[in-house]
Amino acid sequence: MLLWVGVAAVVIAIAVIVVLCSFVRGEFYFSRVKDNDTLSVEVRGLFGLIRYRYVIPIIQFKGFAQGIMIKSETIRKSSNELKDETRDHITKDRVIAFYKQAKDVLVHTMNLYGWMKMTLAKVECTDLKWITRVGVGDAPETAITTGAIWGIKSSLLGFTIRYVNLVAKPRIDVIPQYNEKQFATEFRFAGRIRVWYAVTAGVRLMYRALKVKGGIRTWIQFVLKARARFKPAA
């Protein structure tokens, strides 16, 4: 009997170690071709057994007064069939409300910036792609616009290298279209973090929230509202 208990304990210990040493992988993808926009966020864990995917195939900017109209889709994991479809309207008031909630979380967490910097240092960027095609109909203006976009991309790439461990060779390019008016872009960022580091980061975040009065309550309210807003795909 003791032998079987010992074997079970060893098996459980090995399983826990394997899980803690595995990766949580995430991917952010955005593309715009003419008037077609696609945005997706995907998170996978436990060797693909756990997967959350959020897809927004339609983004329509109605102006600063009317806000942004988006359509999100829930995709079945097994067959990639459309499971659910919802439409949402992001207004200026909702953006301001979210900003106030995020600011409240910042106030109720001890040194949240330091925690974010420490956590991002454990993230490995496994894929970084950003290809842009731009043309404004005039060759000199297209060249100037291309240079400006290169400057923006260089600054953002420097930020990524500063805070995230870049393990893949980035694919960054700006392709001028001198003979036509066009703007198309494709951006993909894929990263991973070991489950052990993610669990440790969660514990540290809880500790920092506990150090501030009302911190845990503020985080619970923030997470519940975020879950109600974003519906993950199966």
TrEMBL record:
Pfam families assigned to the protein according to its UniProt record, in alphabetical order: DUF2953 (PF11167)
Name of the protein in its database record: DUF2953 domain-containing protein
Domain of life the protein comes from: Bacteria
Origin organism lineage: Bacteria, Bacillati, Bacillota, Bacilli, Bacillales
InterPro entries (UniProt xref): DUF2953
